[in-house]
Write a structure and sequence with these properties.
Blueprint lengths: L1 E2 L1 H9 L4 E3 L6 E5 L2 H11 L8 E3 L15 H10 L4 E6 L6 H4 L4 E5 L4 H10 L2 E2 L14 H7 L4 E2 L11 E4 L5 E4 L5 H8 L26 E5 L8 E5 L10 E5 L4 H11 L3 E5 L6 H13 L2
Parallel strand pairs: 1-8, 4-6, 5-9, 11-14, 12-13, 12-14
Antiparallel strand pairs: 2-3, 3-7, 4-7, 5-6, 9-10
The structure holds adenosine monophosphate and magnesium ion.
The site of magnesium ion has 3 residues, from loops.
Length: 294
Amino acid sequence: MLIDARAAVALLRSGEIVAIPTETVYGLACVLTESAARKVYAAKGRPGDNPFIVHIASPGDLGTVAAALPDAAAELARRFWPGPLTLVLPKRGDVPPAVTAGLPTVAVRCPAHPVARRIIEGAGPLAAPSANISGRPSPTRAEHVTAELDVPCVDGGSCEVGLESTVVSLCAAPRLLRPGAVTLEQLRSVLGEVLPAEKTDTPASPGQKYRHYAPVTRLIMTDGSCPPDALLLVPEEENGRFAGRRVLAYTAATLYGVLRELDAMGEEYAYVYCPKPEGLGLALCDRLRRAAGV
Ligand code: AMP
Ligand code: MG
């Protein structure tokens, strides 16, 4: 069901869950209470050890959820907020454990989407993971949400970025936990050294251990070679190289729509050609590898 921003604020304040647009992907939002957060886990079928990102209306609200504000956090907020960057910091005691999946840290972002900001201004800080069934591609249009989840949704158009936010931990030496539209190169230009995500069984970003962003169509990674009649996903700027082939071109903003299109086409499998893992290409490679389950 589609609702307007004012109705969303009223529902959220009463402890209900609502899908809202952001510039990254649509989020399934709730206020910072244990009972509201549990409704989000249930609606998504999300594992209880995968924490949410808390969304704030303005950078100045960071101190309402984070217990420590290192200089690096202030500098990143000044450069990239509002925008597609999430900071992981020690959490304040009043952030409920369900929001952070029991972690002593909290992930915080100040989104740029004007509708998201209006809703957060009205309802207070909102916890919101992506508004999809756990493991499926993130929604980048309201109809992606309503096709999959029986929740009220505010339609804010197509998401401009189309990939989940960059996540960087500032709890120790800065570490990239998830690449996104704020690139590793941009983070390094502000922070100097930024460590890559650790590959361990208990990753610092719990969500990273789950298969993610996956369509029903099986995805097979390729360096360009594949059967002549196979369907091939390629970065839009390299489309020309594959003339005469069955190709779907993607950009960051259209990737998840393309993955959903594959399912609608009923394709059993598709080959995926990744861009160079630089700039935004790093985030695209990460999502495509996870969607392919490798
Ligand atoms: P989603 O909103 O569904 O894209 O998921 C949020 C992502 O942020 C997940 O990958 C989480 O693991 C990560 N995240 C949220 N809170 C924390 C935290 N406190 N520490 C590390 N990563 C986090
Ligand atoms: Mg998600």
